[in-house]
Amino acid sequence: MARMVREMERCAHVHYDPGKTYRYRFCNVGMKNSINVRIQGHTMKLVEIEGSHTVQNVYDSLDVHLGQCYSVLVTTDQTPKDYYLVASTTVHKDGVDLHRHHPIEPGRWTPEKRKNYNLIDAVSRHTIHVYPKSWAAIMTTLDNAGMWNLRALVLERQYLGQQLYISVLSPERSFATNTTC
């Protein structure tokens, strides 16, 4: 065990050239907790979420929720020395919006919340983490006729099978879309 820890410490020490910009990709492949990622003494420019380009805002830390992947750019513009890359679990508190990129908020949804939706450069994604007693606005394009499936998953209760089916009808009468009647 001690040998493995020493090997991990040796491998985790990386040399960077001063003044250069490096890309990091953070993915949360966990099953329950969100993680917060930060690099000591440096900011991170968010350039991609889930394969979609985004407004390039700068952050001191990022919350990475279940199933999410982010790409950030970090410039080594500080005094050369050892800096820690820190990843820790996050704890959701009612009244705090930990999610910076999607309309997810604590409390109940009301029609007034629509004014906060990002309809210009929304992120295309397949997984959204919604905290207990919170809501999420999901914009989707149902681009072909048929049955669409939306699943909610809480691993501890996955046997309950929380699913919603949406039927998209086409005005075209066709056997291909089952709308011949």
UniProtKB/TrEMBL annotation:
<feature type="domain" description="Plastocyanin-like">
    <location>
        <begin position="12"/>
        <end position="92"/>
    </location>
</feature>
<dbReference type="InterPro" id="IPR045087">
    <property type="entry name" value="Cu-oxidase_fam"/>
</dbReference>
<dbReference type="Pfam" id="PF00394">
    <property type="entry name" value="Cu-oxidase"/>
</dbReference>
<dbReference type="InterPro" id="IPR001117">
    <property type="entry name" value="Cu-oxidase_2nd"/>
</dbReference>
<protein>
    <recommendedName>
        <fullName>Plastocyanin-like domain-containing protein</fullName>
    </recommendedName>
</protein>
<dbReference type="InterPro" id="IPR008972">
    <property type="entry name" value="Cupredoxin"/>
</dbReference>
